[in-house]
Amino acid sequence: MRDRVSSTIDVDRVPVLGWQRARGRADLRQSRTDRSTVAIDERELRREVAAVYRIVADRPDEDADLEFPTGRGLAARLGYPPAEIGRLPAAAVDSFTGVGYHLDLADLADGDVVLEFGCGSGTDAFVAAARVGDSGRVIGVDPVPEQLANASRCREEAGAANVSLWRATAEALPLEDGTVDVVLSNGTISLSPRPERVFAEASRVLRPGGRLAVSELVGERRLPDRVRTDPALWAAGIGGAVRIDDCADLLETAGFDDVTIRENPWYEFVSDRARGVCQQYGVESVSVRARCRR
Fold first, then answer.
1. What are the C-alpha distances in Å from 107 to residues 25, 55, 136, 211, 292?
2. Which residues contact 112 (CB under 8 A, 6 or more apart)?
3. Which end of the chain is more exposed for a tag (fewer CB within 10 A), N or C?
4. Is 74 a member of any domain?
5. What are phi and psi of 206, to 5 degrees?
6. CB 277 within 8 A of CB 236
7. Average pLDDT rounded to a whole number, residues 69-96
8. d(Cα 221, Cα 228) in Å, to the nearest integer?
9. 117-175 pLDDT, tens digit each
10. What are phi and psi of 57, to 5 degrees?
């Protein structure tokens, strides 16, 4: 049986001092900006997402009947540099589930403080840790204990002392305002029932001029209720894919400008059902870079 990670793994006390105040502000912002037009059972969707990603963490090499691709082959296809991936622990790469490559857009430099929400088993976090060096720091947050447990073991194997792993959701980050230089995410925003709150939290924790670099699923057309309320499609990132035009509006509302959007044509789902829905509604992967204008 695998070790379970506690809910307080590696939480540093200093950045968390204003968390409750920050959560209160985020709740207020969310209530003013909620764009949802369909009744969604958030608890059911979150349970389904957690169940799927527990499988990814515990059985990445087995036939788990997933809708989406995983692993080293996916990372190579999306454009991750082979030399960087080759230096990572195998367990981190085997559990990789990203939808694109965006680390080139992040402009990571020595000494940067980086936050990744939805860090999973740590592929992007460990690549970022190598780029920011010993003077930098990477904070990975994820709500799934099994993913964090896998990432913790990989961190020890990699000797990545500049990586911290915290259990949290992207909608409620345990950080003070303006404390990080770069926010990363790979396929996490489309797993959230409240993307406007995720973008607001990213803006809140970034320093003025800080960068957001993410890869996410977006759609050309608004998704119907039958897709948006389907737990399996939501866990695949399809049900929560926002329209590309709405994504630009969400970024602007959250306080971002200087937006760059790049398509990722190399990403493709593995199930016929998922591919069919994506084709019908124009769901695709993009990488986005934006700057916090505060």
1. 29, 32, 13, 8, 14
2. 131, 132, 136, 137, 181, 182
3. N
4. yes
5. -80, 145
6. no
7. 95
8. 12
9. 999 999 999 999 999 999 999 999 999 999 999 999 999 999 999 999 999 999 999 99
10. -70, -40
The tokens describing 26, both together, are 């985020």
Q: What is the mean pLDDT of residues 270-293?
A: 96
Contact yes or no for 98/75 (Cβ under 8 A): yes
Strand intervals (E) in 203-274: 206-219, 242-243, 256-263
* Count: domains in the chain: 1
Q: Are 139 and 9 in contact (CB under 8 A)?
A: no
Question: What per-residue string of b and e applies to 215-241 under the rule 16 or more CB within 10 Å gives b?
Answer: bbbbbeeebeeebbbbbebbbbbbbbb
| Entry pTM | 0.86
Q: Sorting pLDDT into bands at 50, 70 and 90, what band is 39?
A: low
Separation of alpha carbons 57 and 52, rounded Å: 9
CATH for 97? 3.40.50.150
Structural domain includes residue 257: yes
Domain that residue 220 falls in: 14-292
Is the pLDDT at 27 greater than 90? The verdict is no
Q: Which backbone phi and psi does 183 adopt, to 5 degrees?
A: -115, 130
In-domain check, residue 18: yes
Residue 152 resides in a domain: yes
Helix (H) or strand (E) holding 275: helix 272-281
Structure tokens at 44: 């059911």
